[in-house]
Each structure stands twice: as structure tokens, then as C-alpha cells.
Amino acid sequence: MRALEYTRATSIDQAITSHAKKPAAAFLAGGTTLLDLVKIDIMQPDQVIDVHSLALNQIETLDDGRTRIGAMVTNTQLANHPRIKTDYAVLSEALLSGATTQLRNKATTAGNVMQRVRCNYFRDGVSACNKRDPGSGCAAIEGHNRSVHAVLGTSDQCIATHPSDMCVAMAAIGASVEVQGPSGKREIDFLDFHLLPGNTPWKEHALEPDELITHVTLAPPLAHNTSGYLKLRDRASYQFALASSAVILTMDGQTIREARIALGGLGTKPWRALEAEDALRGATATPENFRKAASLALQGAMPYSHNAYKIPLGQQAIVRNLSTLGTGALA
Q1: What CATH number does residue 314 fall under?
Q2: Are 219 and 200 in contact (CB under 8 A)?
Q3: What is the pLDDT of residues 201-246, one digit of tens each?
Q4: For residue 191, is it within any domain?
Q5: Domain residue limits at 23
Q6: Contact, 150 vs 267, CB < 8 A?
Q7: H helix runs in 166-232, sequence order
Q8: 157-209 tens-digit pLDDT
Q9: Model's pTM, two decimal places?
Q10: Which of 36, 221, 278, 300 is most buried per CB count within 10 Å?
Q11: Number of compact structural domains in the chain
């Protein structure tokens, strides 16, 4: 058994100060990822700092139309909040498609943002994995890479997918991550928060040492939008996406005025399909244009030995979502 120290923070400043005192400290919120990884000895904190009781559990509308979500807001609270269900329906759908009710009741917004990969080679503790043991290699590249391995944003160092559904929806909406650390407060654009593996796959996010996520702030909702989250998986419940799409559209008759598309299950980070969005703006809502956008979204994809199917599956996730939303907006 590995010993560790437990501290319950009573303020943000105390949490940050306590974290800075230990070289391998970890913040504990809902614990749905951290405790799993500690149990299997993948994460080995010498101290856990419980931030669950900090006053970061509010959802508020700001004067500029943005929505500010406290780090400790649970996935259940966020999915069922009236403002989220009305103005950010794609986020509510994404949250409700993930995990189980029990896990959503415990999992927090910041914890979801900080999820670790589900790659079996990362979690088995013995296989070559550059995330867990920098410089050891990536067993997934030549191994079994069917379900939780990416075709977008990969490198010769890591091909694990980012597992979050919530983050895919937030990438489509547009958001910023508010953090606080020894040097003060700052905001990080959501699309810049999660890092591509490149040559440093063990660097998963843009947090500086001892920084704590305090809020995630969503961009103002698009007026009169229609949106949807489509998750394709091996079974209908409690399963990570093989491919998913978060789509937000605003329509003027049959013309698409604005489009937001993000993908899950396909990339090493929540993947915003900017080229596909550009192709749809000002275009007519037709199957041909939907297929063109889907092709652009996956044009840089690189398949591996067992996951080439993810490229057409990802395209289907986009086309089906666009078809449903485009048809619904015209009805």
C-alpha cells in the first residue's frame, strides 16, 4: 500500500499553497478519474488536496451573455440546469450521453476537463507508454488500437483519444478555462487548453505548475440555434465514443448562416472541425454539402492497423447530425 497525505482545502489560496509544497500533489474533486488511477498505481500522488467544499459550484450568466460554470458543478447539475438545457442544449445532451447517473452525480466540470486517457496500454502499468513513462514508446501504435485510439492529431509518440463528451460540446460552443495559481489568475482558450501529443505526450494540458481550474466560461449562445450531440459507440450505454459529433447551426431558410462542429472519439484532444465549418457558412443545407463538410473534417486523418473504420464512421457522425438538424430547422 502506498501512503499519501490528505488535506481538505478551505480556500482557493490554501489549495494552491498546499499543492505547491508537495512535488506530486493532486487536487481531488469528484475523484471519478483520480481515485481510479491511484488504485491501479498509474497516478502516485504524495498528497491529495480535497477542493470539493470550495465555493465553486455556481452557474451564472454574465453581463456580456457568457455563462460561467464553477469548477465544482457536477455533470448532473450542469446537464439539468435550465440555462444549459435552453441555450446550450448540445452540452446537456453530451453530458447525459456519458457515464452513469451515479458517476455524473460525482464528476465535476473541472474534473471532466482534466480526464486522463482510457488507452489500455496507459492503464495497464507495464506496456510502453510515453504518457506514463516518457521515452518508453507507444505500444498502441503497433498494438490493438480499435476503439480508444485516434486518427486525428496523433504523433509517433501517442495515439490515445481524449475521452470526454462534455469537452467536445464545449469545443463546439467556444469557451475559456479560468485558472488560478501562484502567479495569479488567467484565462485559457478552450481550444488551446488540451495539448496535442507531438513529442511531449505527457504534457496533456496548458496548466502551469500548481494552477487550479476555478471556472469554465461558455461563449454567448448563438441566437436561434439548433444543435445536437451524436455519439456512436459499441453499445448504447456506459461506453466511450468510437466517433461523436457536436453540431450547432443557425439557419436562414435553407441557408446555413453559422456552423460549429466538434468531434470526439477521433482526436487526441477535443477536435474542432474549422475547415468543415468554413465550408458550410453560406451554403445550402443539402446532403452534398454535408458530405463535403464531413470529408473536410477528416481530411487529415491517419488510420492505424485496427481503426481505419473511424474515418468513414466519423464522417457519418457529421452527416447524420447535420442532416437531422438541417431538416429540423427547415420544418
Answers
A1: 3.30.390.50
A2: no
A3: 999 999 999 999 999 999 999 999 999 999 999 998 889 999 999 9
A4: no
A5: 1-50
A6: yes
A7: 166-173, 190-193
A8: 999 999 999 999 999 999 999 999 999 999 999 999 999 999 999 999 999 99
A9: 0.97
A10: 221
A11: 2
